[in-house]
C-alpha cells in the first residue's frame, strides 16, 4: 500500500537529509519525492509517496521530532477520496466528472450530486449516482445552505466540488469545509469576478477567455487558485459564443484541479497554492 | 500598387454586392476581402485590398454613394507606416521592434525613439535610429508631455508605440493621437491594471500570466484590446521570475498588435477592436 | 430556414460581385459569407449561409451560370447531420460525442454506434443509442468491413466518425464514403503514423504530444487534416502517462473537426482542407 | 559561490538520504535540489545547486563513494558558459541570442559567430562580437568542417549553438562535440526531417507548425530533443507565411533549450533528455 507524507514547516538546513534518512532506515521505497522552498516566507513543503511495510505511526513520530516547532505533518495511506458534487443547471463540468469517474479515470467515490435544479437528475441517475434536489427557492440562504450541510455531513466528504454551482456560499457554509471546496469560475481570475464573466469579457472586448479552479473562501472568487486555462477568441465571438467556447476550458481546469486534490498534491500557502507535481 | 479600402457603416442588405460590383466594374483585382457584421450594434465592417489602375477618387465616390448615411470609408494606397517609439528603461519590446525593422520584417519607418531614461541610447543608435532623451524629472507632467508632443509633431506619425513606456499619459496627450497610441501592458487585462502587475499576479498566486497590447485612451489600461498572450506559471515563480518569463509574451503581443495596425486591419468599435485578418 | 451555399471553382475576377448580387436581388439575408482564394492552385472557395424565402433551385441555376466551367456548387438547407460512430474499446472520444449530443451541443443525429468489442455497450445504451457489436474475429477483413457497410448503408449517413476505431479500413471500404470518414489519430501527424503513436512518441523523447483529426483516405493516416491539438509533456511521462494526457487533446481535436463538418465548413483541396470559419 | 552537483547513476534505495546527509554534514546550503528516477531504465538523476564553503573535492569523493558503481558525477562551480554560434543567412535566432546576451539575460560568453555567408556580419559586429566568415564554397565538406573545427578549438566552447546553420554536420564533426551542439530545427520533430520543413508542412496541409531544439548527433534531426513549441496555422498560410510565423516559435524553442543548457539542467539519457527544472 502506498502512503503519502505531507510536510509543511519553517525551512531549516538538513530537513531533506533527516526525513529521507528516516525513510531509508525503515526500508521504505520512495515512489516520488518533491520539495519546494518558498523563499519569501521561508517555508519548506514536501510531498513524499512511498511503499513498504513498517510501523507508520512510529515513523511519523520520528519524522515529527526532526521538524521545527509548529511544523504540519500528515502521513496517511493513499486512498480514494469521497466527493460530493454541487451543481445547478449546466452539465459540462458535471458530465466530465461523471464520465471520468465511470471509467475509473478519477480516483474518487461520488457520494451524491446535489443540485438546486432538477434538469441534471436524469444524467446523474444514468450513472447510478444519487441525485439530490435541494431547491434554493422560498427559503432563506441560511436554510438552503443548512439543508446542504445536513445532507453532506453524513458522507464526511474529503472534497465538495462545485461543478458550476451558481449560488454564492456564505462564510458560515465555507467554514465547515476549509480548503475542501473546489470551485470552477468561468474567467481567468482575478479578471471578471462575480456574475456573468463571459458577458463581462465580451463587454471588455478581450482576446482571450479563461477558466479558474480554486478553493472557496469567504471572499467571492478570491480563494487560492489551483488551475487556470485560457483560449484565444476574437471579435466574432458573442458573449454566448464565448460561453460555449469556454466550456472545454472549464472542464479541463476543473479536472486538473481535482486530479491534484485527490492525489494530495496541493498545499495552501496563505491565499496561494503550492502544487507538488 | 495595392490599395486598402476600409468601410465601417450601419449594416444593410446588399452592401457586399454593391461594393464588389463597383470594384469588378473598374477591373480591380481583389487581393483579399474580409467582412464582419457586428450583430449587437448592426454594424458592417469591411477591409478590401486590391491592385489595379483606375481613378481611385472616382471609385471612392461611387462606393460612398452606395453606403448608408454616416458610413466611414477610407481608400488609400497601402503604405509604410511612420512610427515614433516611446520607451523608458526596459529593452525587450524595443529590441524586438528594432530587430524586426532592421531586417525589414515590419513595414514601418521608425522616425525616432524617445525615452525618459538614457540606458537604451546605445542600443537604438546601433541601428542608426535617432534616440531622443526627454526626461520627466524636475518638470510638471504637462511640460514633460508637451516636450514629447512638440518632438513627435514634426513626424506626423501614423502610430506612437509605447514599448514599455512606464509613464501614464494624460487625457490631453492622448487626444492628440486617438486610436494611434499602441501600448503593451504586462498583464492579461482587465486583471492587474496599473503598476507592478507581475507583483500583483504573484501576490494573487495565479497560474497564468499574460500581456495585453491595446490602444491608449483616457482611462488607464482601459483602451480597446488588440492582442493578448498568456503562458503558464506555477508556485515556484517569484514576481521577478514572472517578469522575466513574461517578456517574451509581451514582445509577441506587441508585435502582433503592431502587425495588425500597420496592415490596416484594426477597426475600433466602441471600446473593442474588430481585426479583419 | 437557413441555406448553405458552397462553391469551389477556378478563381475569376468578379465572382463575389456576381454571386452576392444574385443573392441580393433575390432579397436573401446573408448570415455569414466567407471566401478564400488558394493562390497556388488559383481556386476560389466560398461558404455563404443565408435566410430568406425564394426559389432556391432557380437561384442555384443563376449562380451556376456565372461560375467558370467545372465549378462545384451545392446549395442545401442547413440540416442536422446523420452520423454513424465506429469505436473499439476506448471510451473518451465516444463519451465526449455522446454527452455533447445528449445536451444538444452537436447538431447531429447518431444513428448507431458500431464497435468491434462490447465494453462500450453499456455506456452507449445509457444514452438511448443503438449499440451494434460487429466483431472482427474469425473472419476476413473483407467480411468484417462488409458487415459494417451493410449495417451503415441503411442510414445513408453524412459522416462516419471513427471515435478511436482501431482497425485500418481498406481502400474498398473508404471508397464508399469519400471525405465522409472522420478519424482521430493520437499523434500530431505526420509524426508517428500507424500503431502505438504514444509509444513511438515516448521512445523518441518528444516534449509535445498531439492529436490529429482527418478524413480517411486510402493511405494510412495520410488523409486531409481537419484539426490538430498539442500539449506539453516532459521526461517524467511514461508512454502510459502520455496516453492519459493525450485523451483530452484527442477529444478536443475530434470535437472541433466534427463541428466544422456538421457546419459544412470544410472543403477538401487535394490532400488538404480549406475550413471557412 | 554556487556549485552544481549532477548525478546520474543506477537507482538504489537511500541515495537521496546519503547525498543530502553529506551536504548537510558539510554545512552546505541547498538552493535547489531536483531528482528524477527513470523507471524504465532504473536510473537516478539528480541536480543539486548549493552555496557554502568547504572542501569541494573531498565532498565529491564522499558522495562518489556512496554511489553505485559506474555512477556519473560532476560537481563544479556554476559558471558562465562559453559559446560559439554557427549561422548561415537567417537572422532571427541569432538576433535573439545577441540581444539577450547584450542585456545580460543569458549567462553566456559568445566567443564568436561563424557563418558560411556574410550578410549577418554587420549585425554581429554591432554587438562587438567577432564575426568569422567560413565559406562552404569551392571546398570539400571535410575541408569546410575542418576550418570550423580549427577555429572553434581555441575557444574550447561549452556549447556550439546552431542558430539556423543550414549545413548538415558530418559524424566526424559531431564527435568533437558530443551533446554539446544545440540545433534548432524548424518543425516539430520527428515530423518533417531534413530540408524545407515548412514546404513539407505546407504540402501536407497541417494545422500546427512547430520548432524543435535538440542536441546534434550522427543522424540527421534524430538527436535528443530539448525543447519544442507549436502554433496554430490554417489553410490561408502559404509555405512562406508558415516560415514567417514559425520564426518566433524557433526563437523561443532555442532560447529555452539554451537556458536549460547553460543552467546545467539537461541530462542525456539514450536518445532522450531529462531536464531537471
TrEMBL record, chains A, B, C, D:
It holds the Pfam family ACT. This is Formyltetrahydrofolate deformylase. Keywords: Hydrolase, One-carbon metabolism, Purine biosynthesis. Its EC number is 3.5.1.10. One of its GO terms (molecular function) is formyltetrahydrofolate deformylase activity. Residues 4-80 form the ACT domain. InterPro entries: ACT-like_dom_sf, ACT_dom, Formyl_transf_N, Formyl_transf_N_sf, PurU, PurU_ACT. The active site is at 221. Belongs to the PurU family. Pathway: Purine metabolism; IMP biosynthesis via de novo pathway; formate from 10-formyl-5,6,7,8-tetrahydrofolate: step 1/1. It comes from the Bacteria. One of its GO terms (biological process) is 'de novo' IMP biosynthetic process.
